[in-house]
Amino acid sequence: MLFGKRLGDEKRGKGLLGLIRWLPWFLTVGIWRLTEGELGKGKARLVRTVQVLVLAVRGFTEDRLMIKASALVYYTLFAIVPVMALLLALGRGFGVQEMLLKSMNGGASGGDGALTGMVMGFVENYLNRASGGVFVGVGVVMLLWSVMSAFSRVEKIFNDIWQVKKSRNYLRQFTTYFSMMLTLPVLLVASSGISMFLVSTFSDEYVFGMLSVWLVRGIKTLPYVINILMFTAVFMIFPNTKVKVSSALIAGVVTGIAFQIFQFLYINGQAYLSSYNAVYGAFAVFPLLLLWLQISWLIVLLGAELSYAVQHADDYRFDADVRHMSIRYREFLCLSLMVMVVRRFVGGERALSDGDVARESSLPMKVVRSILNELHDNGLLVFEEEEKSGERRYYPAVDVSRLSVADLLLHLRKVGVESIGNVRRGECFGDEADGVTGEVFAKCWKVMRSLDDAVKGQGEVLVKDVCA
Fold first, then answer.
1. 177 falls in which pLDDT band (50, 70, 90)?
2. How many whole angstroms separate alpha carbon 310 and alpha carbon 246?
3. What domains are there in the chain, each with its CATH number?
């Protein structure tokens, strides 16, 4: 049986209506309680796939990707013309301008080519002004500002998806963004135009006559391969954190195929928009461009969510239970993980990393990191980060020969604000708080102090001796 009773089969009613009522609970709670030991390999893969999809869809709504994609459309409109102008200027220098123009016109025209014609007109105007000397001054500034703003926004959104709070420094941003500015547009144009270019190049060659069928089939897959490699690199480079190749590759495959299919549908679908063009005329190009950019960015951001979900799905095991964790249970976990770290330290063994703690305790990585971060922020643990792996290994930050269980728990309970408005801890209740409410606060605080005293009374047990 795939789902045991402890997952809530008793919650499921009979028939289709019972399944419909039970399914939301299972996708939000039940599926995250399954462990690999309870399932076979086939079922475990199936559950893992569903978990990744559920996490990606949840991230789509919680991270508000529709709004963020709209913001990226705004930044892209600023950057698209200067970047394409730079590519064509470089193409002139290397003698490949005609090839770039063929790729752009052949890959992105579709329909009557109005969209490409409009963009290329802007690019030509930009280059003409550049030849007049404007490009040396204002043009360079606008180019760098537009590209840096667009890529900086993309990195910020990717960091939000990956829950990374720190961005790259300005030097790393400049070098990374500039290299991406020179490579990504070329790959994007090539993925759309390379098939048409190669087919037209090789169709007249006798040498390729016998291989034409297989050659054409291979050429047709090239845009997909280019897209997959491009998006895999994007998902690895933009987040300011370590992204596994497997996670980026899985998301790159899905995103690359989806992006190419959307390109095909968009280009071929313009032929059926004659009524739309009849209403808006030449102005129809602008909303179509906005639509293309919006959906394209949505595909990319969904791919970023998917890469995060693939790499971190295990961290969300028992997620609903973790979000409803009791105060007492969290204190229990703080004590337990502190004991594990102290035992390693006292025994002279290698310090534990968060991965080691997660494996030994069978706790979700998300919970382990949260507890260890809390102990670190409260001055009870310090960590040393390894250069190669990036793992943090934790050590006690206090004298373990004097640290008792009571000291640990009382320290954790007292960290934070204990004064809001006129309601403050201590003897001030009797002095400054009048009336019945003030008396309630004063007496309740005495009860809390008595509970603290009770905990101190059990303070003979040292943390290092808990499992001695």
1. confident
2. 9
3. 5-62 (no CATH), 65-315 (no CATH), 327-465 (1.10.10.10)
